[in-house]
From TrEMBL:
Name of the protein described by the UniProt record: F420-non-reducing hydrogenase iron-sulfur subunit D domain-containing protein
Keyword flag Glycoprotein: no
GO function terms (MF aspect): iron-sulfur cluster binding; metal ion binding; oxidoreductase activity
Protein's organism: Desulfosarcina widdelii
Keywords assigned by UniProt, alphabetized: Iron, Iron-sulfur, Metal-binding, Oxidoreductase
Entries under InterPro entries matching the protein: MvhD/FlpD
Domain F420-non-reducing hydrogenase iron-sulfur subunit D, first and last residues per copy: 8-130
Lineage: superkingdom: Bacteria
Length: 141
């Protein structure tokens, strides 16, 4: 879409999604350069502050990628992440950040294909939405 280059922060859990991203790299699958990977220990560790900080720092989209339900290394981290998602959407609402800019998904260890697909889909979504004009600090505009 023209010169518009979105930046998307991807929080990847160490035990599954990060390995999935690594597998994508090993398989030389194309990962959009817009995606900035941030390794965390567990998707359940990503709190609303981390997500809002990413948006404030200029991210056009944020992905939280963890292990498949049932596979979380810390047992319930990803289930907590699911619950937190609802809270995060409520937090985003007054900032007028479109909730589609935040995506929670699961990528198993070794599943480079899925990682590549999720990353591509997210870039497509963000390109369709266009640049985010609202940031958490200027909700009155
Ligand atoms: S360790 Fe992967 S989601 Fe918890």
């Amino acid at each position: 879409m023209g010169m518009y280059k979105p930046k998307i922060v991807a929080f990847l859990c160490n035990w599954c999604a990060y390995d999935g991203a690594d597998a994508a790299g090993r398989a030389r699958l194309e990962i959009p350069s817009a995606v900035v990977e941030v390794r965390v220990m567990c998707s359940g560790q990503v709190d609303s502050g981390m997500v809002l900080n990413a948006f404030e720092a200029g991210a056009q989209g944020v992905m939280v990628l963890g292990c498949q339900p049932g596979d979380c290394h810390y047992k319930k981290g990803n289930l907590n992440a699911m619950k937190r998602m609802a809270l995060l959407r409520a937090v985003l609402k007054p900032t007028r950040i479109d909730p589609r800019r935040l995506r929670l998904d699961w990528v198993s260890a070794g599943d480079g294909k899925r990682y590549a697909r999720v990353a591509r889909e997210m870039v497509d979504t963000i390109e369709q939405l266009g640049p985010a004009t609202q940031t958490p600090g200027n909700e009155h505009q």
